[in-house]
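Can't paste images in this forum, so I'm doing it all in text. The chain is below; anyone willing to post the predicted structure tokens underneath?
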Amino acid sequence: KGFYHIYALKSLTRQRESLIKARSKQIIELTNILDIVFPEFKSFFDNKLTGNALYILNKYKSPYHIANLTIDSYNNMKKELRHVIKYSRFIELKQLAKNTVGFFDGIHITMLESSLALYLALTQQIEKIEELIRTEVLKLKPKMLGIKWFSIFHIATIISEYNFFKDFNSPSKCLAFAGLEPGRHQSGQVDKKLPMVKHGSGHLRNALFYGSFTLLGRYPILYDYYKKKRNEGKSHNVALSHIAKKLLRVIFYLEKNNKNFDINLLK
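Text version of the structure:
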């Protein structure tokens, strides 16, 4: 496992995380402008600025132009997009634009265009970074790729932050490095477990937590274990941390022993 590939992967995953945070801020900015210009727009698309919503915003910009869309506009959407809203919905959107309570002028439309351009540029950069990450991960061939539904981006973070576990000889050291072990308070004969400590790699914690959450709905073994912890009175985050710990122990075993993933390892 080459140093260059690990170093590149660490840089790429952290850059991706930074870009995603920047894009999240931009989507908030875009939403704030839309709340002034065309407040009905985002709720029409179930508060998701993707696909059809981005296409229409990017191409037509203002409520005035959206209100004046034609059947040709709709047909062009069908040619350019894989999934298009129904024609009845298209007509409904036109009516919303025509009767919007929003306020728009040249300045607001320019602000909308600028915010949207930044959002799309960030998305494009994220996609480029993600393609590079996929390429690097596939070169390294980690065994955890065998865990179905486990995001390749979470895998990339775990590989790069742990450097393929070269300097770790036990799962407990891996947990400590990620800040997943519980804190402890010792005083005389008292040894009281405390909430999870917060040192360690935040990048790793995020990958393990979000990865665990994704897998909960896919693997009944994990979901049952999660429910068991919840029934014991644990909060969602604490129960999820138990899943993350279990997952990390399995990953450690796979990579250190060069073993293929087996669902029974999750028991």
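Strands lie at 182-187, 190-196. The radius of gyration is 24 Å.
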